[in-house]
Design brief:
258 residues; alpha+beta; globular; eight-stranded mixed β-barrel; Sortase, Chain: A; 17% helix
C-alpha cells in the first residue's frame, strides 16, 4: 500500500514538473509570438498614432515594493522580481544622439519588441517587471524608473531564464560586439553588447543604475554617462540564487517609414 502511495505521489510530482517546465513554455512562447505579430500589425497599420509608447521616457516606478530584486525568475517555481531601481539621470552619448523624453507606456503594456540575432530571439517588451502580468507571459519587462529606449540613462530589462517562455535562456551566449535591437513604432534602436557580468547578487541595484556599475563587484560596469541597455536574468539555470547581467551601449536610432 505504501509503495502504491509513493508511486502515485511520484507520478503527480512528475506531471507537475512537466506542466511547469514544458507546458508553460509552450503557452508563453505562443502568446509572446502572437503579441509580437500584433504589435507589428498595429505599427504597419498606423494604429495608436501619437500615443505614449512611441517615444522614450523615464518611468515613475510601479509601486510594487521597496526592495530591489534584479532580474527575472530562473527557477521552475518562479521568484520575486519586484524592483524600485534608481531613476535614470542625464549624461553624454555613447555612439548615438539620445532621444527626448516623453510620457511612458502604461504599466504591464507590451509596447516594443526586443530582437537579438545571435539568440534568434524576438520577444515583446512590456512596462514593468511583475511576474504574473509580464514575465510569466514570456515577455521581457522594463524596470520602471529606468530610461526608455534611446534615452540617456539605462534601458533595463528582466526576463525568465527558465520556464514561462524563457526568453533569456541563452543570455550567457552573448559576446562583446553582438547587436541587440529594440523596435518601437517607427523606430529601431540598435545597441551593441559591451560587457557581461556572469554572476552577481539579486540585490545588486548598481547594474540597473543610470550609469550601470555593479555595487557588489565594482570592477564590472561603466563609469561615464551615456545611453545603455541592461539585460538581466537568473543564474545558474533553474535557480534564482544569482543574476546574470549583459550590458550594451546605443549605437544608432533609425526612423522607419511605414
Amino acid at each position: 500500500m505504501a509503495a502504491e502511495v509513493l508511486t502515485t505521489v511520484g507520478v503527480v510530482v512528475a506531471l507537475l514538473v512537466v506542466h511547469q517546465v514544458w507546458w508553460t513554455n509552450r503557452q508563453a512562447v505562443a502568446g509572446a509570438q502572437e503579441q509580437v505579430r500584433a504589435l507589428e500589425r498595429a505599427w504597419e497599420g498606423g494604429e495608436g498614432e501619437g500615443d505614449a509608447s512611441l517615444a522614450p521616457s523615464v518611468g515613475e516606478g510601479d509601486g510594487q515594493g521597496a526592495g530591489v530584486v534584479v532580474g527575472g525568475s530562473g527557477g521552475a517555481g518562479g521568484g520575486d522580481v519586484r524592483a524600485s531601481p534608481p531613476a535614470a539621470g542625464a549624461g553624454g552619448g555613447t555612439g548615438a544622439r539620445p532621444a527626448p523624453a516623453a510620457a511612458g507606456p502604461a504599466r504591464d503594456e507590451a509596447y516594443g519588441v526586443l530582437r537579438i540575432p545571435r539568440l534568434g530571439l524576438s520577444v515583446p517588451v512590456a512596462e514593468g517587471v511583475d511576474r504574473r502580468a509580464v514575465l510569466d507571459k514570456g515577455y521581457v519587462g522594463h524596470y520602471p524608473g529606468t530610461a526608455q529606449p534611446g534615452a540617456e540613462g539605462n534601458f533595463a530589462l528582466a526576463g525568465h531564464r527558465n520556464t514561462h517562455g524563457e526568453p533569456f535562456r541563452y543570455l550567457n551566449r552573448l559576446r562583446e560586439g553582438d547587436e541587440v535591437f529594440v523596435d518601437l513604432r517607427g523606430r529601431r534602436y540598435t545597441y551593441v553588447v559591451g560587457k557581461v557580468l556572469a554572476e552577481t547578487s539579486p540585490g545588486d541595484v548598481g547594474v540597473i543604475a543610470p550609469v550601470p556599475r555593479s555595487s557588489v563587484r565594482p570592477g564590472y560596469g561603466y563609469e561615464s554617462a551615456g545611453s545603455y541597455i541592461t539585460l538581466t536574468t537568473c543564474t545558474p539555470e533553474y535557480t534564482s540564487k544569482y543574476r546574470l547581467v549583459v550590458w550594451g551601449t546605443l549605437r544608432s536610432v533609425v526612423s522607419e517609414a511605414r
